Amino acid sequence: MENYLIPGIPFLLDGQMAIKFFTRCYFTSNHFATAFQMDFDDWGRRNMHSSEQGYFALRAVEFGDRQQFEYVLNLASARDVKNRGKHVRGYNYGHWQTVKREHMLRVVYEKFRQNQPLCEALLRTGFVRLVEASTDRYWAAGLRITDEAIRSSNNWPGRNELGRLLMRVRDQLRPLPHHVLQINKHYVVCQAAAPDYVVALAAEPHVQPYAVRINNETVNAARQLQIGDTLVIESVEWREGFEQLGAEGMNDRPCWVHQARFNWQATASAVYSVCMHRWVPARAKILRCVRGGPRHNRTICSIRVQLDGIEFVLTQRNVNGNINLAQQGQWIDVSAIVVAEHWHADWGFILPPDAVFRGRHQIVSDGRVRIPVFVG
After folding, report:
1. Regions of the chain with pLDDT less than 70
2. 374 within domain boundaries
3. 187 and 169 inside one domain
4. What is the pLDDT of residues 154-205, one digit of tens each?
5. Where do transmembrane segments lie in this chain (predicted)?
6. Burial code of 275-286, b = ≥16 C-beta within 10 A, e = fewer?
7. Domain that holds residue 312
């Protein structure tokens, strides 16, 4: 069976490797034929032939239509279910929109949890983005699998919710060793100021080492690590003298940030799991550009950028590189990161809400969910 488990078609999405899928020939599709069971409480534990069948069965259960429920379970294929399983007595569109995603998550999770070959095949997709390529504007990207426009997420009219759920299930099913679960050493990449490594901070402020250097070559990931990625670190090699400083409680906390760079205490020698964060492209307008003196090419650049309808004005200091051609009023391409509310963001790094230090530079938190970071 494993020889026929194909997730989809590899392609470049926003310049990075991804997998697009549609139709029953790919195991990521809801129409892929696979047997599993679902528990419907008072209506019993039933056999499913596809996740499409499980989804429409839950739809009938949600509105208490036992007749439609039994009808869906007797349909022979996912195609029949999609074409003939939608008519539910008492159906309320608004209510269904609020619960359908959680129902789909439950179905997809059971599909892979109960089928070891499918689970292993899903985990083999690593950390690449999974995209349902159809014209559905909720579950899929809103574009056909043959449409070249799908290579840029900016072109998508759809939300790709099924792809997102598959990636979420993949993270849930990715095994973690018991000792890793016990120590709970989860880290967030908070700075990527060098080409060959990043610095991650522990998600919990009491964890030591708190700041860890992670070389890109240590992590076998689909792309280089970037700000916002999360990791589980199994083992580290301490920098000389820093283990003792960490044990003493890091009393002089400002010293752990020097010239806007984190002083890492240790280097990761083994990383078990990586979850890639989402970066999105954006357009920005240069408001001000102050160039450095003749002895260096560092500059200060202020931009105005709009992300999801929210406008931000950001200033990045110490921009590396020659931007002599940059002019006030010029439009440029930048990248933006989506981080959780109450996180802190500066031009060069992000910080968790409970970070044990703030550094020597002002950290700005705008109190909203989406905070972009300008990348020079």
Report:
1. 1-4, 175-185, 193, 205, 220-223, 245-260, 273, 275-282, 289-326, 333-348, 352-376
2. no
3. no
4. 999 999 999 999 988 987 887 654 444 444 567 888 887 677 888 988 877 6
5. none
6. bbbebbebebeb
7. 279-351
Per the CB < 8 A criterion, the answer to whether 86 and 114 are in contact is no
pLDDT in tens, 241-280: 777 766 665 544 445 566 667 888 899 988 876 766 666 6
Supply the CATH number for residue 236's domain.
2.40.50
Amino acid at 303: I
Q: Which amino acid is at 242?
A: F
Taking the C-alpha atoms of residue 8 and residue 121, their distance in angstroms, rounded to an integer, is: 11
| Helices 116-123 and 93-113, packing angle to 10 deg | 100
Q: Which CATH number does the domain housing residue 90 bear?
A: 1.10.357.40
The last residue of one of the domains, among 242, 260, 275, is 275
User: Do residues 193 and 148 both lie within one domain?
Assistant: no
